[in-house]
Write a structure and sequence with these properties.
21 helices, about 20% strand, 5-stranded antiparallel sheet, 20 strands, alpha+beta, elongated, Beta-lactamase, 6-stranded mixed sheet
Length: about 625
């Protein structure tokens, strides 16, 4: 009996405690906490969204690349709309009457779903239109102004790098519930990749309405308002002055420039030509049809999205693999009589002294030499068959960053293409292909494709004698001390001691005396030890593509560059001058008087007509 009494007491006490907790919670919700009351009273409250300013973007030297300016949207609240002077309204905003009627009809169709909300009616009106509207706003009940910041660009630079801002579409909103209709988001470039840091946090002000739906006063004296939090500023690795200079050099040319600091992986320039003009970025939506209709595809970021044949610059990789595999020595000599011949097969080459050793083969860019090198790699008796040796070759090449994404912090990077045994077995059948079948790989043609970023990375590997750092565009995010760029050090599968002989060949290609057969003497810079390699990549759609990679100085390098110019012809004629002028500007701050003619000639080159035929 006593135990039953205790049980009844415990149960009774439990229920009393529950009732007290429940009663206390109700009191708190009804009398103390106003948040639920605010939610329940949405029909008498009006929220005015306060959009934050996006974080600013700076270059490595503190120069502003992307900043903000005020813009004004004209909002409409359908439930507050009354008949108004449409002629005056059209006059303020330079609208056709038919267009205004169409817009009002579209809003009216959504009247029930919009309710008491305010939605954007006209986006980013001009300052003059905004001022005229303010003077006569009393005539247009149901219309109001929403102020927000939009991007502006103190320096006209390639818009593919920062990317553009656009209103979020429904597909994006469905996947990202933290965004609402009317919100703007970063699309492409740094704006998209770093959206979560740059966007900031929206705020709002809450106002009471009267029985006529007119704004009466601030709710609770602003106690429940939320202050907007600006986005975080960002310091990039870009050298803005060098970026502008590179874009100047690429004027009227199609292609790209990528320049890296080989000691860190920092990107100094990332240029696509012809890319998206920054004058379109402030109000990109209105320019979108024009951009999409452009035959040169300005939205296509060639620096990271184009898988080009690398051409003769790829000979550096094959030479290094041959050295590592022990099938090639620096003193190895091969003859060249205007090309390489094996039965009915001919790989043509230009006229140059012959035979050549390894240094000379790089300096003169001999095709026949590297046909022999590739065959010695693939026909190496240390492997059981060509399938095994080809897979090993593929593994070597992949360690140089080809056939894989390097991990740069900008969306859209492609991996390029890197063939191997599986591909050739699929094309020709297992055991039915030989080293001669894939001989075009020896000179960077055939089934291999590389992005300009990967080619710049190759230049950085040569500069570092065997390793590279993850290319990246952002150094620091202010107010975000926990942020650090994702950087890895990557060692290639070739020992560092094998690089010196190839680097010497690159040095001789630029700095050897006249008559030596050096292919890049036009790129020589007074008092700068530039090392480079030309490339001329076959293009089935027109003129050959012009390629050049380089780094400088030879010892303790500060910059590594790749230039790729579509339909530019020989690497020495177009890409090499652009790259060497860029290096000279970066290292010396000016162009030497003896090279002013080259600078002027480069600016005068107009290759766009080759693309617009």
């Amino acid at each position: 009996m006593e135990s039953r009494a205790i049980q009844r007491t415990v149960i009774t006490g439990f229920f009393i405690i529950c009732m007290v907790i429940l009663a206390g919670r109700l009191v708190f919700l009804q009398l103390i906490n106003k948040e639920y009351k605010i939610t329940a009273s949405n029909n008498v409250l009006r929220y005015e969204i306060i959009y934050p300013s996006r974080g600013l973007i700076y270059d490595r030297n503190g120069n502003t690349m992307v900043e903000n300016q005020f813009a004004y949207d004209i909002m409409i609240t359908p439930r507050e709309l009354v008949p108004f002077d449409t002629t005056a309204f059209c006059s303020i905003f330079n609208l056709e009457r038919e267009r205004l009627e169409q817009m009002l009809e579209e809003v009216n169709k959504r009247r029930r779903s919009i309710g008491y909300q305010s939605v954007i009616f006209l986006r980013q009106v001009t300052n003059q239109e905004y001022t005229r509207f303010l003077e006569k706003s009393y005539k247009f009940r149901g219309f109001s102004v929403q102020t927000r910041s939009v991007r502006s660009y103190p320096s006209q630079i390639c818009g593919n790098l920062p990317g553009y801002i656009i209103e979020a579409d429904q597909a994006f909103l469905d996947k990202n519930p933290e965004y609402r209709p009317g919100d703007y988001i970063g699309r492409t470039g740094l704006e998209e990749y770093y959206e979560k840091w740059l966007r900031g946090e929206k705020g709002y002000s809450i106002f009471l309405r009267d029985v006529h739906n007119r704004i009466k006063s601030s709710y609770e004296d602003g106690a429940y308002d939320k202050t907007a939090v600006p986005g975080k500023d960002m310091i990039t690795t870009i050298d803005l002055n060098l970026q502008r200079f590179g874009e100047e050099l690429m004027r009227n040319k199609v292609g790209s420039i990528v320049a890296l600091d080989p000691s860190t992986g920092e990107v100094l320039t990332l240029i696509t030509s012809t890319g998206l003009s920054s004058q379109y970025l402030t109000n990109f939506g209105s320019y979108y049809p024009q951009v999409m209709a452009d035959p040169l595809k300005p939205l296509f970021n060639r620096a990271i999205m184009s898988a080009y044949p690398p051409g003769s610059v790829f000979k550096l990789v094959n030479g290094l693999i041959g050295l590592q595999e022990g099938v090639l020595k620096p003193e190895t000599r091969y003859s060249c009589n205007m090309g390489y011949r094996a039965g009915s097969l001919t790989v043509k080459c230009h006229s140059h002294p012959s035979p050549t050793n390894l240094v000379q083969s790089v300096m003169m860019s001999c095709n026949a030499y590297y046909c022999n090198v590739l065959r010695s790699i693939l026909d190496n008796p240390a492997y059981r068959n060509i399938g095994e040796s080809m897979n090993k070759w593929q593994e070597y090449v992949k360690s140089f960053g080809f056939g894989t994404r390097l991990g740069i912090d900008i969306p859209g990077e492609l991996s390029g293409s890197l063939p191997g045994t599986a591909l050739y077995d699929k094309i020709y059948g297992a055991g039915r292909w030989r080293s001669l079948t894939v001989i075009s790989l020896s000179i960077g043609q055939g089934e291999i494709g590389a992005t300009p970023l990967q080619l710049a990375n190759l230049a950085a590997i040569m500069a570092n004698r065997g390793h590279y750092y993850t290319p990246h565009l952002v150094r620091e995010i202010r107010q975000e001390p926990s942020f650090t760029p994702t950087i890895g050090r990557h060692q290639v599968m070739v020992d560092p001691e094998h690089f010196e002989v190839i680097v010497e060949g690159m040095y001789q290609a630029v700095n050897a005396p006249a008559g030596s057969g050096a292919t890049a003497r036009l790129a020589a810079i007074p008092d700068v030890t530039l090392c480079g390699k030309t490339g001329t990549a076959q293009n089935p759609h027109g003129e050959d593509n012009s390629v050049f990679i380089c780094f400088a100085p030879k010892d303790n390098p500060k910059i590594a560059v790749a230039v790729y110019i579509e339909q530019g012809g020989f690497g020495a004629s177009q890409a090499a001058p652009v790259a060497s002028l860029l290096v000279e500007k970066y290292l010396t701050g000016q162009i030497h008087p003896s090279r002013q003619w080259l600078y002027e000639r480069t600016l005068e080159q107009d290759l766009l007509t080759r693309h617009l035929k």
